[in-house]
Amino acid sequence: MKKSALITGITGQDGSYLAELLLEKGYTVYGIIRRKSVADYGNVEHIKDKLNFIYADMTDIVSLINAMKIAQADEVYNLAAQSFVATSWEQPVATAEIDAIGVTNMLEAIRTVKPSARFYQASTSEMFGLVQEIPQSETTPFYPRSPYGVAKLYGHWITKNYRESYQLFACSGILFNHESERRGKEFVTRKITDAVAKIKYGKQECLELGNLDAKRDWGHSKDYVYAMWLMLQQDEPDDYVVATGETRTVREFVQVAFSTAGIDLEFHGNGKDEYATDKETGRTLVKVNPAFFRPAEVELLLGTPKKAEEKLGWDRKISFEELVERMVKNDLKLQSK
């Protein structure tokens, strides 16, 4: 029998890579999208004819129950979220409705329509926030530092609660930062690579960023969605950290990005007065802007993927350097047109 999968957030970065993976594996793939005046297929525009779209919303349980009735999904991947951390301070209630209550709505829809369906919840390393140990694992205490992290923590715990209370096959993937060429420009990594390409082609003067000392564990989305799929193929449901085990500063990301475009940077000063110049021309290309600092900063995120590697047989294929290189080359191509 051909398996059926339902993906929320299918038009996003992860949703698109996951949809491609499931299609390759012979699934019938359904994707939830919100009704808009103009249809927006986002990152799945190139495969939209191979997908089945259902109009629904994470804040409307009736629409999610209807989506489950239509899809009769064997596997449900909940990737829908208000996922931009900065916006979560500006829209904390909306973030909670989507990222917290929305998870409960999806779980209830599964429990009502097809309790045998396997469920994946997209948890996040932002739940660790003010980290209590290094590196962070599945047993590290949580300490979220943003409305986004708090809402995601609710989603994480309600998933575990439904697993233990209703015996649902429900898993959470605690994914550390994962990027790609399909990342939205509001995220710092894509903001950097987009700016590098524009600066290279004379379309932008300078890149302004917040905390250059913030450290993140960066991997590629394509590797991480494979871990999602593996979680739902196991005999028993469980939660897993998906990470690289390496941490890099925003400054390092900036350096590699500019280097990929053939520009060597030299950094000067520190803190809010830090800036970087082109070694060849002396032109200032990067500045720190305190306006981009978070109200509560997450200084260091570093995960250990040991459990995922040992129990799932997961490993990553794309290195940090290749990740940045792919993103920069993609943006250079876009800006050259």
Automatic annotation (TrEMBL):
Record SUPFAM superfamilies: NAD(P)-binding Rossmann-fold domains
Enzyme class: lyase
Entry EC number(s): 4.2.1.47
Signal peptide positions on this chain: none
CC cofactor: NADP(+)
UniProt xrefs under Pfam families: GDP_Man_Dehyd
A single MF term (Gene Ontology): GDP-mannose 4,6-dehydratase activity
Protein name: GDP-mannose 4,6-dehydratase
Membership in a protein family: Belongs to the NAD(P)-dependent epimerase/dehydratase family. GDP-mannose 4,6-dehydratase subfamily.
Domain NAD(P)-binding span(s) in chain numbering: 6-327
General function of this protein: Catalyzes the conversion of GDP-D-mannose to GDP-4-dehydro-6-deoxy-D-mannose.
Entry keywords, A to Z: Lyase, NADP
Reactions performed catalytically: GDP-alpha-D-mannose = GDP-4-dehydro-alpha-D-rhamnose + H2O
InterPro entries per the UniProt record, alphabetical: GDP_Man_deHydtase, NAD(P)-bd_dom, NAD(P)-bd_dom_sf
